[in-house]
């Protein structure tokens, strides 16, 4: 064995203790460190300077080099005032689970050698209860909501092609007419998933209700009528990016009595409305979907990268994702095939462990608390924007995102200037957006550590950035 490797093997305890010290220092500093930083535009070029060492320096020295080179450039996305992406951070239990997932290093692909696949299925079972989904839903972990959308839409494509007598997984979709996909305000990753599936970035836009991002169900029914029974896909959106608006999933599912469509629900973070009696009505009807996307690295507050995909059609899912080889076990639904046969990945990380840990550690009330606290913060910030002369609230705060802009008719440049100033100030991080054509900003609350005081700091920083 290489001598440096041998040394590290013998110093394992010291190395792990170093990691613990490093982690504690990072987490302790999170609330006071700049929340985000500007990496500049030359990072690829800069990243091509480092020489691969002929002889490694060992872990302690590598860590020292890393923290010197990159420590100051890390963002505070795990902390309480990163309101850019719906990032969530990691609860203590999730973090511990994630560390141990690396320690255990299970390959959660086949059922042959480890209990880990069973832990994944148990975690899915816990999550079904949290989201009010019946046990007719199968579920697995994937790397994020984009891949979850891909898995759902791949099954939809399989389903639709079968109605034309084509097994798309075997024959491809070359002989088929385009499969219509209908949606009002889909997330950009729906287009990406469609592109990956060979269906093209083609969505039939359905009008929204006036002043809303939610679908006009009457207009949807008319469009379905016009398709004259041709199989199609409806993407229901449970939590849009800008205003966290929800399609009326119950009304959409009633359309199933008359029309021939697959209902895929994208509830990447909106699905967590189910955690609070105050908001659960927003996702009523989600349980009637054919496939559902919900992220774990957002509001479940597990580390990147993790999401769930749920489906009521295991046969279709296996038809698409089976990876037949004798050593990978059975592939038909009645023989409970290994998880390798369910999603794009073959080898899979033990992603369920952080989720299992955090669900068991905090339970229903823990998640109700996180969701309700974050929503109250978004609501409070929205009220400040609505009452202010410098800002303008653009939409009611439906859940955990505040969508607002500068007073008057701001240009995107003006919005970006304020947001850049805010980022460089370091107290808080928000992202720009465009809502109904208006350049805007959004503050997304999704971190278990965020307190009302953080919303107040955010508001103060916003006002300071105006001068
Ligand atoms: C974040 C998000 C996605 C994409 O999620 P990733 O986990 O980044 O792949 C998809 N849909 C919605 C509604 C989202 O909010």
What would a concise description of this structure say?
The protein is 41% helix and 11% strand. The protein has helices at 3-10, 12-29, 43-46, 59-70, 92-104, 116-131, 145-163, 168-171, 188-196, 217-226, 249-254, 314-321, 352-387, 412-425, 452-465; strands at 138-142, 181-183, 204-205, 232-237, 261-266, 291-295, 307-311, 391-393, 401-406, 431-435, 438-444.
Secondary structure layout plus pairing:
Layout: H1 3-10, H2 12-29, H3 43-46, H4 59-70, H5 92-104, H6 116-131, E1 138-142, H7 145-163, H8 168-171, E2 181-183, H9 188-196, E3 204-205, H10 217-226, E4 232-237, H11 249-254, E5 261-266, E6 291-295, E7 307-311, H12 314-321, H13 352-387, E8 391-393, E9 401-406, H14 412-425, E10 431-435, E11 438-444, H15 452-465
Parallel strand pairs: 2-3, 2-4, 4-5, 5-6
Antiparallel strand pairs: 1-7, 6-7, 8-9, 9-11, 10-11
Helix pairs in contact: 5-13, 6-13, 7-9, 7-12, 13-15, 14-15
The protein binds pyridoxal-5'-phosphate (PLP).
Pyridoxal-5'-phosphate binds next to α7.
Task: List descriptors.
467 residues; alpha/beta; Aspartate Aminotransferase, domain 2; Aspartate Aminotransferase, domain 1; 7-stranded mixed β-sheet; 15 helices; globular; binds pyridoxal-5'-phosphate
């Amino acid at each position: 064995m290489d001598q440096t490797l041998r040394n590290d093997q013998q110093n394992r305890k010291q190395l792990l203790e170093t990691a613990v010290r490093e982690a504690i220092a990072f987490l302790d500093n999170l609330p006071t460190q700049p929340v985000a930083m500007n990496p500049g535009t030359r990072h690829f070029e800069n990243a091509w300077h480092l020489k691969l060492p002929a002889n490694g320096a060992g872990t302690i020295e590598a860590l020292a080099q890393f923290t010197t080179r990159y420590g100051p450039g890390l963002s505070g996305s795990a902390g309480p005032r990163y309101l850019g992406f719906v990032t969530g951070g990691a609860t203590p239990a999730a973090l511990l689970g994630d560390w141990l997932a690396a320690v255990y290093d299970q390959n959660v692909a086949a059922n042959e050698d480890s209990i880990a696949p069973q832990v994944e299925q148990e975690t899915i079972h816990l999550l079904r209860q949290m989201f009010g989904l019946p046990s007719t839903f199968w579920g697995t972990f994937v790397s994020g909501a984009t891949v979850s959308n891909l898995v759902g839409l791949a099954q939809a494509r399989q389903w639709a092609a079968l109605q034309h007598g084509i097994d798309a997984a075997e024959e491809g979709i070359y002989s088929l007419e385009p499969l219509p996909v209908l949606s009002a305000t889909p997330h950009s990753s729906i287009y990406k998933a469609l592109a990956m599936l060979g269906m093209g970035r083609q969505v039939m836009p359905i009008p929204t209700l006036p002043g809303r991002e939610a679908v006009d169900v009457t207009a949807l029914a008319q469009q379905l009528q016009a398709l004259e029974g041709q199989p199609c896909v409806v993407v229901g959106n449970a939590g849009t990016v800008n205003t966290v608006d929800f399609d009326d999933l119950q009304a959409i599912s009633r359309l199933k009595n008359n029309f021939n469509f697959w209902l895929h629900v994208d509830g990447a973070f909106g699905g967590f409305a189910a955690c609070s009696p105050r908001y659960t009505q927003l996702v009523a009807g989600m349980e009637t979907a054919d496939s559902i996307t919900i992220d774990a690295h957002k509001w479940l507050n597990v580390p990147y990268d993790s999401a769930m995909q749920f489906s009521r059609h295991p046969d279709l899912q296996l038809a698409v994702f089976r990876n037949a080889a004798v050593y990978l076990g059975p592939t038909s639904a009645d023989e409970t095939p290994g998880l390798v046969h369910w999603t794009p990945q073959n080898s899979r990380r033990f992603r369920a462990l952080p989720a299992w840990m955090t669900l068991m550690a905090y339970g229903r009330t823990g998640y109700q608390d996180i969701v309700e606290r974050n929503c109250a913060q978004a609501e409070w910030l929205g009220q400040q924007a609505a009452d202010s002369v410098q800002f303008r609230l653009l939409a009611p705060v439906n859940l955990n995102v505040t969508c607002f802009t500068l007073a008057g008719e701001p240009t995107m440049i003006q919005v970006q200037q304020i947001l850049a100033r805010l980022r460089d100030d370091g107290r808080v991080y928000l992202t720009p957006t465009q809502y109904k054509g208006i350049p805007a900003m959004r503050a997304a609350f999704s971190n278990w550590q965020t307190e009302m005081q953080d919303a107040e700091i955010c508001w103060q920083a916003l006002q300071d950035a105006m001068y």
